[in-house]
């Protein structure tokens, strides 16, 4: 005889569904957010409808030839100052990390002096260098430096002091084991710096360097005090003639906002490039 298997009903209770997670209601935060949005909307409407801003004048001069020439000079000055400033700043950072106490002291003294002195004072000193030193090594300095040359020199020396600290911080962020591994491979000091240290330090250098770039772009407006025809000075020349101060200042402001926005987008992608392989990469 063959045995017949009989299935008996399971007596185990049915599985209960997992508890549903209900997020905490934050009515106060949403109320505050709504109030802020309403206030921002009201402020925007007031700016757009306020006839004192003279938006028709803003549109007229926004792409005028003189304003675009000033914008071009501002961009050129920003790029040149950043390139020269970081070249000199990198050298100062290397000297600051040197084993030679004299080189370290010179680098520290440079950074201390130029970070302690207002940039406007530096520009005015360079602009009046002919009064302080009429001749240097037999060269007449009275008319040697024009306003643009003074702006380049003054801004570069100023930016180099900050760039030195940015680069030094980036170099110090590199793990010591990486440098020791490069030394064990027999790499020279220069190759260790350019092939091992700086590529890894860029992850820490890029964010503050991007902020410096944007700050330098806006900071170039200070050269208007020595009659360099940058973006701000170009708009000033126009409103000194037309007395339309507010709309011309808006023209300069909108151009600064547009350029800094583009630079901010570029900074984001550069940061993401150097953050590859790290937890913070997005």
From TrEMBL:
List compositional bias (Pro residues) regions by residue number.
Answer: 11-21
What lineage, starting at the top, does this entry show? Answer: Bacteria, Bacillati, Actinomycetota, Actinomycetes, Kitasatosporales
| Pfam families, sorted | BPD_transp_1
What protein family is recorded? Belongs to the binding-protein-dependent transport system permease family.
Organism this protein belongs to:
Streptomyces sp. R44
In this chain, the stretch annotated as Disordered covers 1-21
Instruction: Tell me where in this chain the ABC transmembrane type-1 domain is found.
Output: 71-264
Q: Which CDD domains match?
A: TM_PBP2
Report the protein name in the record: Amino acid ABC transporter permease
- Its main subcellular localisation, reduced to a broad class, is membrane
The UniProt entry lists membrane topology as: Multi-pass membrane protein
């Amino acid at each position: 005889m063959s045995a017949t298997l009989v299935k008996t009903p399971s007596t185990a209770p049915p599985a209960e569904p997992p508890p549903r997670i209900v997020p905490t209601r934050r009515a106060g935060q949403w109320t505050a957010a709504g109030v802020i949005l309403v206030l921002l909307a009201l402020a925007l409407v007031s700016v757009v409808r306020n006839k004192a801003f003279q938006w028709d004048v803003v549109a007229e001069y926004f792409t005028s030839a003189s304003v675009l020439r000033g914008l071009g000079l501002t961009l050129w000055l920003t790029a040149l100052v950043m390139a020269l400033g970081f070249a000199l700043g990198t050298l100062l950072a290397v000297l600051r990390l040197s084993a030679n106490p004299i080189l370290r002291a010179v680098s520290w003294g440079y950074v201390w002096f130029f970070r302690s002195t207002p940039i406007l004072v530096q520009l005015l000193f360079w602009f009046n260098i002919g009064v302080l030193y009429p001749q240097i090594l037999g060269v007449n300095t009275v008319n040697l430096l024009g306003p643009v040359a003074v702006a380049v020199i003054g801004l570069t020396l100023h930016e180099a002091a900050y760039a030195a600290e940015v680069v030094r911080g980036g170099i110090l962020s590199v793990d010591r084991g990486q440098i020791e591994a490069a030394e064990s491979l027999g790499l020279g000091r220069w190759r260790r710096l350019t092939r091992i240290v700086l590529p890894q330090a860029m992850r820490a250098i890029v964010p503050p360097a991007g902020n410096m770039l944007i700050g330098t772009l806006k900071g170039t407006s200070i050269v208007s005090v020595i009659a360099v025809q940058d973006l701000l000075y170009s708009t000033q020349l126009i409103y000194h003639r037309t007395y339309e101060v507010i709309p011309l200042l808006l023209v300069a402001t909108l151009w600064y906002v547009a350029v800094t926005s583009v630079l901010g987008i570029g900074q984001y992608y550069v940061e993401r490039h150097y953050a590859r392989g790290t937890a913070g990469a997005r």
